[in-house]
TrEMBL record:
Participates in a stacking interaction with the thymidine ring of dTDP-4-oxo-6-deoxyglucose, annotated site positions: 132
A single MF term (Gene Ontology): dTDP-4-dehydrorhamnose 3,5-epimerase activity
Gene Ontology cellular component terms for the protein in this record: cytosol
UniProt name for this protein: dTDP-4-dehydrorhamnose 3,5-epimerase
Residues at the catalytic site: 58 (proton acceptor), 126 (proton donor)
Similarity comment: family membership: Belongs to the dTDP-4-dehydrorhamnose 3,5-epimerase family.
Gene Ontology biological process: dTDP-rhamnose biosynthetic process; polysaccharide biosynthetic process
InterPro entries per record: RmlC-like, RmlC-like_jellyroll, RmlC_Cupin_sf
Species in which this protein is naturally found: Actinokineospora fastidiosa
One of the Pfam families matching this protein, by short name: dTDP_sugar_isom
Length: 179
């Protein structure tokens, strides 16, 4: 598996080895031995999105937060990692990775996650360090001009994502995690 550190502190991109033959494909998109001390998996989730759907920038605000290992099992997405950690040297910065063919990103707790589906039925799988706690799950606007994420005009957003505060509003309201 190839690993590459992203511009946002603590975030990594992973490209697993694909083993193809005349029968099809075999891949191990996550290997526990690489993450056991850093990333205990508590939940696995999957989303399927039509072309043009944008999801995020989602994060968990409370300690210990929620680390994520995200890979694309089908289709193609443009994935964003956004540093929402107050006091971080890369606060407010983001990086992006095109996920396809089981390529993955690792986000430590405190980073925001978003993506745009680039193909129909794009399937994104999440390994999470803790279970879903609705009261702790927050979002920052994908369309925040301060972040300037390259979200296509006309992207399909959920009500939650359309109504999410900007980074500055979330900071002023004390909703962001700390570094």
């Amino acid at each position: 598996m190839e690993a590459r550190e992203l511009a946002v502190g603590g975030a990594w991109a992973f490209t697993p080895d694909l083993h193809r033959d005349d029968r099809g494909l075999f891949v191990s998109p996550f290997e526990e031995r690489e993450f056991r001390p850093l990333f205990p998996v508590a939940q696995v989730s999957t989303s399927v999105s039509r072309d043009g759907v944008a999801r995020g920038v989602h994060y968990a605000r409370t300690r210990p937060g929620c680390a994520k290992y995200v890979h694309c099992a089908r289709g193609r997405v443009l994935d964003f990692v956004v540093d929402l950690r107050v006091g971080s040297p890369t606060f407010g910065q983001w990086d992006s990775v095109e996920l396809a063919d089981f390529r993955a990103v690792y986000l430590p707790a405190g980073l925001g996650h978003a993506f745009v589906a680039l193909e129909p039925d794009s399937t994104v799988c999440y390994l999470l360090s803790r279970g879903y706690e609705p009261a702790d799950e927050l979002a920052v606007s994908l369309l925040d001009p301060e972040l300037n994420l390259p979200i296509p005009a006309g992207a399909v957003l959920s009500r939650r994502d359309r109504d999410a505060p900007t980074l500055a509003e979330a900071l002023a309201d004390g909703l962001l995690p700390h570094y």
